[in-house]
Amino acid sequence: MQILPPRWKYWHDMEWRPQLRKLRDPARENRRGFLRRQRSWKLKTTRLRRRRKWSRCEVHRPVCSASKWYHYSGTLIARRQKELVRQTWALEKSETARKADEELLDQLQSRCDELRAQHAEAELQLAEVEGHNRHATDRTRKELVLRVNRCLRGYACWEVTARERMTLREMEIRAAALMSGDNRSRRRLAKRLESFLSRSRYAIANLEAEVASVLRRFGLRRRADEWTGRKLVSSGGSHRRHSR
Predict the structure, then answer these.
(1) What DSSP line would sit under 137-200, residue for residue?
(2) pLDDT tens, residue by residue, 208-233
(3) Which segments of the protein form a coiled coil according to its record (predicted)?
(4) Which end of the chain, N or C, is surrounded by fewer C-beta atoms within 10 Å?
């Protein structure tokens, strides 16, 4: 009994393989031919189908492109129409707004012209009123200054005259008493007369300063200076009279 090697476990060994190959070769060839024919037939069929498809596409391509272009042009036209409508509406709206702005601007311009005219008229009226008030104020001030000056002059003259009369009368009385009294009474009388004369001079100076300040307050500085000089002259003459 022959023992097969471990790798040849089946009945086909090296001796039988060539015979099996010979038996299988025709079947293989037939199968290969069938497959080759089938593949070529499929290729031919595919080519024919592709040619038919291409021919159809070539024939219908202008129609398809025309239909597509027509559809695209219709869509584009509709889009452009919508855009045109939107722009037209925006233009009408802007035109309406522009007209409204122009009307409002005209109204504001006319109102500004009216207000300018009223302002000019009011300025003229104000200038006239200010002129009348200025003239009235000047006239009233002048009249008031004249009255005050007259009153102050009269009052000052009266007070100075009264002071002089009182001073002269008291001096006469004191002189008579001095002639009839002793030395002590004479000295006392001389002191009193001197104090009285100094008080009268001080009162006259205060009165003159008050009159001058009132005249300066009314804007009559020149008249105040003239009044002060006149009073100084008169007071000097009266003092000279008293000294005599």
Answers:
(1) HHHHHHHHHHHHHHHHHHHHHHHHHHHHHHHHHHHHHHHHHHHHS-HHHHHHHHHHHHHHHHHH
(2) 777 777 766 666 666 556 655 555 44
(3) 91-132
(4) N
